[in-house]
Amino acid sequence: MLIGGLTPRYLISSPPAGMAEHVGTTDLDVVVGISLSSEEDEVYRKLQQHLREAGFAPAESFRWQRSVDGVLVQLEFFCPAGDGQPGKLLRNPGGAGSQISAIRTRGAELAGQDFITVPLRGELLDHGGFQERVELRVANLLPFLVLKAFAVNDRDKAKDSYDLVWTLDAYGEGPASAAEEAAKSPVIGNPNIAAAISCMREQFQTIGHRGPSQYAIFELIHEDEDERERLRRFAHGTIQEFLVRWRELSLPEYQR
Q: Is residue 253 part of a domain?
């Protein structure tokens, strides 16, 4: 299940006219063990075997990597937090013989409950020939927004704010329409939704807060304080438009 920085390109196949394409990423973030209690150990051992056969090697237990045409591609594994602490590793879910770990992540289970299936076609690794069709499961809009809101809140990575702002700005008719689409999600009543919206409100409450500031850091090409201010205001305005519509629709959030 794909959840990371490649997700926007599949949620939004073509951005509005005049808007830059999403920058993408070479990090592939994948949720494993959506229902950990029912997973068989053999599944993880086979996953490890397939990774090695494809030329991937562990940089860390939760991050496997290889070079593809001179570009380092990293595959990172995440799983629902379960009864563990978010951000900590679930080590060796495959038991003895497995070297794969996954990062416990708040809201990761939502991706398994609301996703889209994207057909892909292209050339396989290592001159393996052309594959006409492969189906990829990708987190749908609301799970992706929840995971990104938590990421902005919980870690210091500027691209998380960029992914969140870009997706809301590019989706449909803009941030308000993204809220309207999110309202249709089958996971709208999950407790993680209100928690994520609270994080979004907190981190984007002014142009000087972390969200707008991190967005500007990611987008700023040259040191220019006027441009930094413009980028911060744009990020703040985009999120506020989404949150205003969210509240108008009486969607879940913590009451203060």
A: no
Give pLDDT tens digits along the chain (256 positions). Answer: 899 999 999 999 899 999 999 998 878 888 876 443 445 567 777 888 889 999 999 999 899 999 998 999 999 999 899 889 999 998 765 554 567 888 999 999 999 999 999 998 888 888 888 887 889 999 999 999 999 999 999 999 999 999 999 999 999 999 999 999 999 999 999 999 999 999 999 999 999 999 999 999 999 999 999 999 999 999 999 999 999 999 999 999 986 5
Tokens of residue 149, six digits: 């809101």
Q: Which of residues 92, 120, 139 is at a domain's end?
A: 139
Q: Is residue 207 a part of any domain in this protein?
A: yes
Q: Tell me the residue type at 225.
A: E
Closest Cα to residue 76, out of 91, 94, 63?
A: 63
Contact 134, 149 (CB under 8 A): no
Whole-model pTM: value is 0.92
